[in-house]
Design brief:
The structure holds two protein chains of two kinds.
Chain A (H helix, E strand, L loop, with lengths): L1 H8 L11 H6 L5 H17 L1 H13 L5 H13 L6 H13 L2 H14 L5 H18 L8 H10 L5 H17 L7 H15 L6 H14 L4 H5 L1 H14 L5 H17 L8 H14 L2 H23 L15 H17 L15 H16 L4 H11 L5 H13 L6 H18 L5 H18 E2 L4 E2 L3 H14 L4 H17 L14 H12 L8 H16 L2 H24 L5 H25 L3 H23 L7 H14 L7 H12 L5 H18 L4 H16 L8 H15 L4 H20 L5 H25 L8 H15 L6 H18 L4 H5 L2 H11 L4 H19 L3
Chain B lengths: L17 H23 L34 H8 L5 H11 L1 E5 L11 H6 L4 E2 L12 H11 L2 E10 L2 E9 L6 E2 L5 E7 L2 E8 L2 E6 L4 E5 L20 E8 L4 E10 L2 E2 L5 H14 L13 E4 L3 E2 L2 H9 L6 E8 L9 E9 L5 H21 L5 E9 L22 E6 L4 E3 L7 E4 L2 H7 L6 E14 L2 E12 L10 H12 L4 H7 L3 H12 L3
Parallel strand pairs in B: 1-17, 11-13
Antiparallel strand pairs in B: 2-5, 3-4, 4-16, 6-14, 6-15, 7-8, 7-10, 8-9, 10-11, 11-12, 15-17, 18-19, 18-21, 19-20, 21-22
Classes of the chains: A mainly alpha, B alpha+beta.
Subcellular location (chain A): Cytoplasm; Nucleus
Family (chain A): Belongs to the importin beta family. Importin beta-1 subfamily.
Keywords (chain A): Cytoplasm, Nucleus, Protein transport, Repeat, Transport
Chain lengths: 889, 530
């Protein structure tokens, strides 16, 4: 009845749009006062009458003659009223839109469609985006049935200007990107694609329309799934794409190659018939076309490599019928493809090392060559080596750089057996090339060395290009070259990084590097202190490399060296606090430097506290270190320093109960970290630190628990906080409960219902993609860990408190035990909590266990596992369940 | 239109490990959490290799102390706590029921060192006491068929490992007496101390040791929980311990060979692995291993346990021990008494997809069987194949039984129990019949059912056919000493018989611990199975 009334009423009501141009302009004023005031007024309008506000915005956007600035902002605000990155917020916005009176909505939509005919390009473009946002809400709900019809009318009417067609195609593209083809009937899908593909036709007079159509097709490629399954339709679409790839206008050609890139990955399995054409088109583009087009042409091949690498990586030994075929396109094209890519390597920019944003033909070509090597393995070597040999000694630096780059690019993919003799033969040459007169050559040489150490230096796996005989020379060259230009030095850091990494856990080989470490460490610190770099990249690379050197060293041999490093790093961190801060830029620089140094401290703390002999060193320095961290925290007012927080966790672990004395000072920063929703990583790390502190302090943490639990519970209920932080919070409940034992009693009424709700969420979770499966596993494990901590914490005195929750927990374990997607960690946590339940509640849960055959199955599965830890836990759990049945005979 | 994402800079990977540091921290935190929880569970990584671990590796945690709660006592609890007060026949009966008596090893268990992995890949049925079983075939098929036919049920579950390969788990419920095991042979071995086998019970501030027949050996204060009045005065009456020990006269030490109860917690249903692990930690913790003192009259000591491989067996057989050796004792690591009777066999076989349906039916069956198990699994006391004892003249002074004067009788003597119907049976469940006394003889000698009678094995000896005892030529000697609580077990009689005629030698045992090449053979056997 209400709906009926509205429809009847609507023709007689004309909703009035408000005049808001001035507010929109003022909101962009350079004068902060005017700006803030205007923003406030707009917000007030929005809050008081959203429908009228949105209508006014669309009116602003649609009215030619209004200032471009106010129209632009109107469009942005409109878009932001319909869509948001955050899922919860987006949901809210959608509900808001759906609830708006239909009269307003149709007027808004009418105005937007009208805007597509505007003479102002920017207005058309914005309207196209807003229409797509509304379509994404309304089309799945069948609430905008005539949209597609209206847009198609714009396309077919002869007398309409090209600009309208262009805007309409753009709109169609965006709409296709937003919705699924299943939201429309197939006829509509077909008409949309027909309109788009027709727009791409050579007969289309206007290049703007042709370009818009090609870009619309790019956005509609997923949408065209059904059409791609039909050979005739597919042939037609591919024909149009290939035709536009040869269009007069470079922009259209580029858009067309972008379509090909997307098609190569989305429709790999149907590419076969078009490969000859694709090869010719791309080869021509790579060799002769403008850079933008050529880059996309190379990208086509990189995409095909991606697909084939993925097919190879996930190849199942027993292939079922559903698996997509591997067409070996790269292998088949290899002999022509590789020479084409090698040519691109010679097209370097003169100053390509200066700017990180540079992406040119030579880089794209080298990247693609690397992917080809990973796709075909050994077969690439004979095709590349002649090029390397022919160019490496030339006087022209481009030839030498290209030869080195080619060599470095193919180090991943071919077998060690194939590569090893070449690299052995070439290593000495590369070391000499670190003294080349040209810095590009040195840059690429250092990068190639880092690739060699990354891929061909693994003493723990039994092979290495480095021998005791050449190590001294390698280190000598690296430490000499680290003084070179900043971009070269950065690559050298990378080489040292992988050189050190190779010696991690390498047994006796680890000792080989030890004599060089003092020198390496002091060179890295000197590098970090350099001031000639344009940004902080070199410094952070030097510190990260230092971390890896420390982390991978053999502690028994290097403890003295690391102990000497500790005060040096502490001193540096102390200096950062004294830095004069005049601008926000200064503040940022300070923060970056502190991040690097806290990182080093964390690595040192973790390294030295890993064995008792050196742990005492950390204990000796603990007070000073903690004071430093607190001073670092004090440098900021509203956020906590993530790296410092991370390091504090390591410190708490090292100090144990001693950490209690830092708590009064540290607690406020911990609170701050736990409340940091925006930088969720900081929040996650703070949660982890709570766990570290619990284990360090045991029940000494009790005075802080009310505060911590309140914040954790708030975090859990927040829709704002990134979901990845939630599982660690549950684990943290377990940590707290284990630390404070019976005192956890007062939190049970809050924590356990949360755990139960989360368990129910797990049960209903749609595990459609890998990421969700992983998240689901993480959540399950952490819920189990929470229960484990509580049960073990209560075991000696308050176990009966958990009795009412035992059944729910058992059901959850049963559910999880029957899920085939659970990972090993979930299984471990499940079998452990099963034992905890039996251990803590004993014969009280006898009845619950009696008819649960899944326990036997789960234990059986675990006892067969190859994982000793899991078997051990299962053995224990079996014992505990056995006891449940024995206590009362 | 959003431009196509450019590739990551291939040549310019910025060295940034912040994410790696986060992950390493998380890893450390997870590890620490696991350690903390495992410590709360008293489950340390030392559990699998404890004989080689220094005892200090484990941090003790406070024992559960039940102070002001007085929960209802089950009948079993009362039994155990009052056992120290039991006297005479009552005590005998009680102890006879509680003791886990090792079977005597009369045939080499198939591959003594068998570990889990072997069995997973090898379908081998082990017959410890095959003399008693009716089958000796080598073919795996026939053995399986035997199981299916003669035991409660055999069911199987199927786990789809990956396309085309299914793991088939066979579950087989066997009567205890049918000593078949598929893979339970993960064993410990130790040198058995020579001395008096006894139970040590600590409760109410005093410790009592009793021999197998229930007679008192010592009454003394000890450092065991509630074992003396000196300390732990507040400990509740529930905190008692029952240890299975051998009292070694020479050094006046109780060597603990097993544990039934610790601080009021029953370990009946726990695996040997777990029991030893617990015991090892707890004994040290309570300082029961310390030398004698005012409140601790006898030292307790653990017997060093070894994994039952070549090295372990060799060490147990010849390695130095602080006590006089009397044979070797084998323990089954993985099985508790509760799980006895349930044997699981796991094999991986390629299964046609069409066969899956049948397996699904089987899965349903397996559930039923497991429920059955849950209802019907009882404590297995008395003779048990979970512990085996073996000896020869190198590791024991008493290979062949002596009489009360310490002399080896000319002929083997056996003690059998007289039944209502005149049958003479062993102490086994079910009993094995060795002979028959006619009513006239019973009346004349005034014997009654339940009497334990001593016989000597005459010239006729023990005659076997097809692995089964066919005839025993027995000569009645007389009733046994009143202290004797039960008859000989079948395996003991068999061991003694063999010790006199064809003893089982250490070489046989060592040979049964198969070499790696043999394991491969076994694996190949299995592949032929499907």
């Amino acid at each position: 009845l209400r709906l009926y009334l509205k429809i009847v009423v609507s023709p007689y009501r004309t909703e009035m749009a408000m005049e808001i141009t001035q507010f929109l302009l003022s909101a962009q004023s350079p004068d902060a006062k005017i700006r803030t005031e205007a923003e406030g007024q707009l917000r007030q309008f929005q809050e008081q009458n959203l429908p009228s506000f949105l209508l006014s915005l669309s009116f602003e956007l649609s009215t030619d003659g209004k200032p471009t600035e106010s129209r632009r902002l109107a469009g942005i605000v409109l878009k932001n009223s319909l869509d948001a990155k955050d899922a919860t917020r987006k949901d809210h916005l959608v509900q808001q839109w759906v609830a708006i009176d239909i009269t307003f909505k149709s007027q808004i939509k009418g105005l937007l469609l009208k805007t597509l005919g505007s003479s102002v390009h920017e207005a058309r473009h914005t309207a196209a985006q807003v229409i797509a946002k509304i379509a994404s809400i309304e089309i799945p709900r069948k609430e905008w049935p005539d949209l597609i019809g209206s847009l198609l009318v714009y396309m077919t009417q002869q007398d309409r200007p090209a600009s309208l067609k262009q805007a309409t195609l753009e709109t169609l593209g965006y709409v296709c990107e937003e919705i699924s083809h299943q939201d429309l009937v197939q006829d509509e899908v077909n008409s949309v694609l027909t309109a788009v593909v027709q727009g791409m036709n050579v007969t289309e007079q206007s290049p703007e329309v042709r370009l818009a159509a090609t870009r619309a097709l790019y956005n509609a490629l997923d949408f065209a799934q059904t059409n791609f399954e039909n050979e005739m339709e597919r042939n037609y679409i591919m024909k149009m794409v290939c035709e536009t790839a040869m269009a007069k206008e470079a922009e259209i050609r580029q858009a067309s190659f972008e379509c090909l890139v997307s098609i190569a990955s989305t429709y790999y399995e149907v590419l076969e018939p078009y490969m000859q054409t694709i090869f010719e088109l791309t080869a021509n583009a790579v060799r002769g076309d403008e850079e933008g087009v050529a880059l996309q042409a190379i990208e086509v091949w990189s995409s095909i490599c991606d697909e084939e690498i993925e097919l190879q990586d996930f190849e199942e030994p027993e292939t079922g019928d559903s698996e997509p075929p591997h067409s070996h396109f790269i292998e088949k094209a290899l002999s022509s493809l590789v020479p084409m890519l090698l040519e691109t390597l010679l097209k370097q920019d003169e100053d390509q090392e200066q700017d990180d944003g540079v992406w040119n033909l030579s880089m794209a070509g080298g990247t693609c060559l690397g992917l080809v090597a990973r796709t075909v393995g050994d077969a690439i070597v004979p095709l590349v080596m002649p090029f390397v040999e022919a160019n490496i000694l030339k006087t022209d630096w481009r030839s030498r750089e290209a030869a080195t780059y080619a060599f470095g690019s193919i180090l991943e993919g071919p077998s060690i057996e194939k590569l090893s003799p070449m690299v052995h033969a070439g290593l000495d040459f590369l070391l000499k090339a670190m003294r080349d007169e040209n810095s590009h050559v040195k840059d690429t040489t250092a990068w190639t060395l880092s690739r060699i150490f990354e891929l061909l230096h693994s003493p723990s796996a039994g092979f290495s290009i480095i021998s005791p005989a050449n190590l001294e020379r390698v280190v000598g060259v690296l430490l000499e070259s680290i003084k070179d230009a900043p971009h070269v030095a950065e690559k050298v850091c990378g080489a040292i990084y992988y050189l050190a990494q190779g010696y991690e856990d390498a047994g006796t080989s680890s000792s080989l590097l030890t004599p060089f470490l003092p020198n390496i460490i002091s060179c890295l610190i000197a590098t970090a202190d350099r001031t000639d770099g344009s940004d902080s990249k070199l410094r952070s690379s030097a510190y990260e490399t230092l971390n890896e050197v420390v982390r991978c060293s053999d502690l028994a041999e290097t403890s003295q060296i690391i102990i000497q490093l500790l005060p040096v790093v502490m001193n540096k961190l102390g200096q950062t606090v004294e830095l004069q801060i005049l601008s926000s830029e200064d503040r940022e620089k300070q923060g970056d430097l502190q991040a690097s140094l806290c990182g080093v401290l964390q690595v040192i703390i973790q390294k030295l506290s890993s064995i008792d002999e050196t742990k005492s060193i950390i204990l000796r320095f603990a007070d000073q270190i903690m004071v430093l961290f607190l001073r670092v925290f004090a440098c900021r007012s509203s956020t906590v320093h993530e790296e410092a927080m991370l390091a504090i966790g390591a410190l708490a672990y090292a100090t144990g109960p001693e950490f209690a004395k830092y708590m009064p000072e540290f607690y406020k920063y911990l609170e701050m970290g736990l409340q940091n929703f925006e930088e969720y990583q900081v929040c996650a790390i703070s949660v982890g630190v709570v766990g570290d502190i619990c284990r360090a302090l045991d029940d000494q943490i009790l005075p802080y628990c009310d505060g911590i639990m309140t914040l954790l519970l708030k975090d859990l209920s927040s829709g704002e906080l990134h979901r990845s932080v939630k599982p660690p919070i549950f684990s943290c409940f377990g940590d707290i409960a284990l630390a404070i034992g019976e005192h956890f009693e007062k939190y049970v009424v809050y924590a356990v219902p949360m755990m139960q709700r989360a368990a129910e969420v797990c049960a209903q979770m749609e595990l459609s993609d890998e990421e969700m499966v992983e998240y689901g596993n993480h959540l399950r494990r952490s819920i189990f860990e929470a229960y484990s901590g509580i049960l073990q914490g209560f075991k000696s005195s308050k176990a009966e408190l958990m009795l009412p929750h035992a059944q729910h927990l058992l059901q959850f374990i049963e559910l999880v035990s029957k899920d085939k997607q659970r990972d090993e960690n979930v299984t471990k946590a499940a079998v452990a909590v099963l034992g905890d339940l039996a251990d803590a509640l004993g014969s009280n849960v006898k009845m619950l266990f009696q008819d649960r055959s899944f326990c036997t199955e789960l234990l059986g599965e675990c006892l067969q596992s190859g994982d000793e830890q899991l078997k051990e836990t299962a053995t224990w759990t079996q014992g505990m369940i056995g006891r449940v049945f024995s206590v009362c005979g | 239109m959003a431009p196509h994402d450019l590739r990551r800079p291939f040549k310019r990977p910025a060295v940034s490990d912040q994410q790696k540091r986060r992950e390493l921290s998380l890893l450390r935190q997870n590890q620490n959490r696991r350690d903390a929880q495992n410590q709360a569970r008293c489950l340390a990584s030392t559990v699998l290799s404890f004989p080689n671990q220094p005892e200090s590796a484990f941090e003790p945690e406070p024992e559960p102390v039940l102070e002001d709660t007085e929960p209802e006592l089950g009948p079993r609890d009362i039994d155990i706590r009052q056992s120290s007060k039991l006297r005479g026949p009552e005590a005998r009966r009680w102890f006879a029921k509680q003791l886990m008596l090792p079977e005597w090893m009369i045939d080499v268990p198939d591959r003594l060192s068998n570990d889990w992995e072997d069995v997973r890949s090898g379908l081998r049925i082990t017959e410890w006491l095959s003399g008693r079983g009716a089958f000796r075939g080598q073919g795996t098929h026939s053995k399986l068929a035997f199981l299916v036919k003669h035991h409660f049920c055999t069911v199987w579950t199927v786990v789809n490992l990956r396309s085309g390969i299914f793991q088939v788990n066979f579950w087989c419920l066997c009567k205890k007496a049918v000593l078949i095991t598929f893979f339970s042979d993960v064993r410990y071995v130790c040198a058995r101390p020579s001395g008096q086998r006894c139970f040590v019970v600590s409760s109410n501030g005093i410790t009592v040791s009793r021999l197998r027949n229930g007679s008192l050996l010592h009454r003394f204060p000890s450092a065991l929980p509630n074992g003396s009045r000196a300390k732990d005065a507040s400990r509740s009456a529930q905190s008692y311990c029952i240890l299975d020990c051998i009292f070694h006269e020479l050094d006046q030490t109780y060597y603990v060979v097993d544990m039934v109860c610790w601080a009021g917690i029953s370990f009946y249903e726990c695996t040997a692995e777990f029991r030893f692990y617990w015991l090892n930690n707890k004994l040290v913790e309570t300082s029961a291993c310390d030398g004698p003192s005012r409140y601790h009259r006898y030292r307790f000591s653990m017997v060093p346990m070894y994994n039952c491989d070549h090295e372990g067996m060799h060490t147990a057989y010849t390695g130095p021990v602080p006590y006089v050796r009397d044979g070797l004792l084998f323990y089954n690591k993985k099985f508790s008494k509760l799980s006895l009777g349930l044997y699981q066999l796991v094999i991986q076989v390629p299964v046609q997809r069409t066969a899956v349906k049948e397996f699904k039916v089987a899965v349903a069956m397996s559930r039923l069987a497991l429920e059955y198990l849950n209802l019907h699994a009882h404590y297995q006391t008395g003779n048990t194949p979970l512990a085996l004892v073996w000896k020869d003249e190198n590791c024991s002074q008493y290979v062949i039984d002596t009489d009360s004067k310490g002399q080896i009788p000319h002929q083997q003597q056996v003690v059998l129990e007289l039944q209502d119907d005149g049958k003479l049976t062993t102490y086994d469940d079910p009993p094995v019949v060795f002979g028959f006394l006619n009513g006239e003889f019973i009346q004349k000698t005034e014997l009654v059912a339940g009497n334990l009678l001593r016989f000597s094995v005459s010239e006729g000896g023990l005659v076997f056919a097809d692995g089964k005892l066919e005839k025993a030529d027995l000569q009645y000697i007389g009733k046994v000493n009143r202290a004797r609580a039960f008859a000989d077990s079948y395996s003991k009689i068999m061991f003694q018989h063999m010790a006199r005629h064809s003893p089982l030698r250490i070489e046989h045992l060592l040979a049964s611990i198969c070499s790696p090449s043999e394991q491969e053979n076994v694996a190949r056997d299995v592949e032929m199975l499907d």
